[in-house]
Amino acid sequence: MTAIDLNTEIFENAPIGLLYSEDRVVRRGNRRFAAIFGYGPDELDGQSLAMLYPSLDDFDHTGQHWIRELGAHGIYSDERIMRRKSGELFWCRVRGQALDSEQPLARAVWSFADLSSERPVLALSRRERQVGMLLVEGLTAKEIARRLDISPRTVHVHKNRLMTRFGVRNSLELVRCLASVPH
């Protein structure tokens, strides 16, 4: 087997979803990437990544955040809710690396891991999901408010709703619930 064949075999048979994108358009994804999202092997080629997000608003906000993070660090990692072809929402671990930090979304390599068996999706609003993810990252209400361009009071309202939905009594328990992904 030649090196080129071996590289293709490794890419296509990786146990996680792998993707190469240009300007947030799928250029090449492996079989696992397509399967995670419920698509056939080449069905996503040439498609916007927007179709994998719960909403266009989520897609836009994530893109703005990626530009900042990839531009500053060249790499990005988070856990977020994504959307399958069927419309089903699920938790996904996303990691990415820009190939050019000057134009972070122009060319990037991404990995996707389906967390749905370990972390069921609750019916949360987009803003509750955003606040929840940022709480898990350890941001304060003021930092979350700045990042989302909302007031700290609004952050507290969303945090209190999340605490009620998860049936927890304090912030520490909430973060544990939000971050309850087995290692």
TrEMBL record:
It comes from the Bacteria. Keywords: DNA-binding, Transcription, Transcription regulation. The keyword rRNA-binding does not apply. CDD domains: LuxR_C_like, PAS. Signal peptide: none annotated. InterPro entries: PAS (IPR000014), PAS-like_dom_sf (IPR035965), Sig_transdc_resp-reg_C-effctor (IPR016032), Tscrpt_reg_LuxR_C (IPR000792), WH-like_DNA-bd_sf (IPR036388). Residues 117-182 form the HTH luxR-type domain. It holds the Pfam family PAS_9. The keyword Transcription regulation applies. PANTHER family: DNA-BINDING TRANSCRIPTIONAL ACTIVATOR DEVR_DOSR (PTHR44688). This is LuxR C-terminal-related transcriptional regulator. It comes from Seohaeicola nanhaiensis.
